[in-house]
Write a structure and sequence with these properties.
324 residues, alpha/beta, TIM Barrel, 12 helices, 15% strand
Length: 324
Amino acid sequence: MINYLNLNSFTFSITDYCGCKCKHCLVDSGTNKRNFLNKDIILKVCKEIKSLNILSNDEPIALTGGEISFHPQIIDIIQEIKKLNFKKVNINLTGMAFNEDNIKKIAPLINIACFSIDGPSEFHDNFRGVNIYMKTLKNINLFKKYGTKNIAIQMSILKENMKYIDEIAQLANFYGVDHLRLVPVLPIGRAQSYIDNNQLLNQSDYDELLKKVIFLNGKFIRIDTSSLLDRRSFLLKNPQKVYGIESITNIEVNQEGNVFFNGFVNNTFCIGNIKENSLKKILNDFLKGEKYSYYNKISKDIYCKEVINGNKETICVYKSKLCY
């Protein structure tokens, strides 16, 4: 049964420690967190991925956080994953704890290094809760210099920073960035704070965003619209349902070893813990059990029209219905 998964990616969220204080962080990471997924566990899971043949060589292993550069084993982790013959390793980071020597060691091994920039320096640093804008631009240049194949900028989109999209597209073009990802913020984690001030995108905002993407794709840079199109499509086809369902098939292991199937739907939907059972057992038990049926049901039948309009009470229903 596992062979039918055909994953688009496999993600390790290797730490919840982060030097930023992002207002929209979906995993609520910060300097008060100290969980780090051990290298040996990561490599054990990677070997299982190979043996189970659930991820083709064209699909990536992704490392995210928190901020991955704070993980004390991060350089060894990336080097050892590549030794297991994974063709693509992608990372999400600011690189705030990296120096140039660190970057020099790992940059040639990375398929995509994705950096978050959400607006001009003053807005970005306020949004992220720390002065990180200039360090991020410096790290983009260093990863390019030392051989990373693709550089991406991810812009988390709210109503308040849609006006900066053109500026960030020009910035990405100037720095030779390969992809610009426009990712609408969803009401998960600390981003629930945006419900009260009506900053989450609605249908008309999505339409405006798509028009801008069409224009910018021809003028500046290739824009990765997969998340944007998935969320808008789901919103328009299912106006009474939550718009956090995406078309990718992903498994994520977080910093505590918890395993999530399409965790972005909701990070409370845990199917096991890799410290307690093998990946094979976790997936077999999930795919053969009632939890998988429940997952398919909630992917279709969660009624949360008020989420789109920003009703705080409905968010509580949204979260509780996704808990098994």
